[in-house]
Specification:
Blueprint (H helix, E strand, L loop, with lengths): L3 E4 L5 H10 L1 E4 L8 H8 L4 E4 L7 H5 L6 E4 L9 H6 L3 E3 L6 H16 L2 H9 L20 E5 L3 H10 L5 E5 L6 H7 L1 E3 L2 H7 L2 E4 L13 H6 L5 E4 L8 H10 L4 E4 L18 E3 L8 H19 L12
Parallel strand pairs: 1-2, 1-3, 3-4, 4-5, 6-7, 6-9, 7-8, 9-10, 10-11, 11-12
Helix pairs in contact: 1-12, 5-7
The structure holds (2R)-2,3-dihydroxypropanoic acid (DGY).
The site of (2R)-2,3-dihydroxypropanoic acid has 7 residues, from loops.
Length: 321
């Protein structure tokens, strides 16, 4: 009998075609968000789940899916999945590393440039008819070139962000759980520093660590107060890494200059006080959202699921069983 897979969100035709060659596919192509109860009902007779960061795969869902063998997340982050509950049941969990590094790094750079040069704020002003003519001291931004870029989390995406800094003649400092090897540091022209030196030294601080209980509110009021009043914070990794209420206070109070945010605590809801601020660029979690990258992510997840169902070890397994 062919194994059954549930695909929780809309994906591309080629992904469904590939899956259909190997499994019986039930997919939510209407893309209506499935609540936990609906998800549990649909998963009850499935051996595989292909899901997204909007789906919570917790112990309750795992218990409701007695035949489940693999959870293939269409994301590199997997904080939406209870890894311990899956591992305890021998369920393989996979993610989609690599294919989204460059697109996500590009988006972090869009936030760096957008905040420094006030791109979205000034676009709003132009549309509102506020631009009455050129002036020397008008709507001044800050330079990105020759500034210090601080990267907190030097994994693949952090490295791709650092690489791009060379074109702007920036000084790059970074902090990471483990220092990267000397050869890579040389190639990226990046210097390892302690956490406090990173916070104090960066003109642009980009966060690129995964979310976990250990990184919850890694940036809060205390950390923000160490940053330069001229500094800009970019969060393109996960909501919850930053204490958003503390960040709003810091932006309102001039503790830092600006922030570029692609992710929020409790998204898609966000702290309404952000909306009143001009010194913040707000994006709807689009780090990996280019057509080529989203197609590649979906195919990577599908290949992981099929490999696991075929008894192979999928390339992107994140739990040891
Ligand atoms: C990821 O892959 O973790 C991204 O945030 C999804 O867009």
């Amino acid at each position: 009998m062919r194994p059954k897979i549930l695909v929780t969100r809309e994906v591309f035709d080629e992904t469904l075609d590939f899956l259909a060659r190997h499994c019986e596919v039930e997919s939510n192509q209407g893309d209506l968000a499935l609540d936990p109860a609906a998800l549990a009902i649909r998963l009850a007779d499935k051996q595989a789940l292909m899901c997204a960061l909007t789906d919570r795969v917790d112990a309750r869902l795992v218990a409701a899916a007695p035949q489940l063998k693999v959870v293939a997340n269409i994301a590199v982050g997997y904080n939406n999945i209870d890894l311990a509950a899956c591992t305890a049941r021998g369920i393989i969990v996979t993610n989609t590393p690599g294919v989204l590094d460059d697109s996500t790094a590009d988006l972090a750079w869009a936030l760096i440039l957008g905040t420094a040069r006030r791109v979205t704020e000034l676009e709003r002003r132009v549309r509102a008819g506020e631009w009455t003519g050129w002036r020397l001291k008008q709507w001044l931004g800050v330079d990105v070139h020759h500034a210090t870029l601080g990267i907190y989390g030097m994994g693949r995406i952090g490295q791709a962000i650092a690489k791009r800094a060379a074109g702007f003649d920036m000084k790059v400092i970074y902090h990471n759980r483990n220092r990267v090897d000397a050869d890579l540091e040389r190639r990226l022209n990046a210097r390892f520093v302690g956490r406090e030196e990173l916070l104090r030294g960066a003109d642009f601080l980009v966060l690129q660590m995964p979310y976990s209980p250990g990184t919850h509110h890694l940036i809060g009021a205390a950390e923000l107060s160490l940053m330069k009043p001229t500094a800009i914070l970019v969060n393109s990794t996960r909501g919850g890494v930053v204490d958003d209420a503390a960040l709003v206070d810091a932006l309102e109070g001039g503790v830092i200059r600006a922030a570029g945010l692609d992710v929020f605590e409790g998204e898609p809801k966000l702290n309404p006080r952000f909306l009143a601020l001009d010194n913040v660029v707000l994006l709807p979690h689009i780090g990996s959202s280019t057509e080529a990258t989203r197609r590649a992510m979906a195919m990577t997840a599908a290949r992981n699921a099929v490999a696991a169902l075929s008894g192979e070890v999928p390339p992107n397994i994140v739990n040891s069983r």
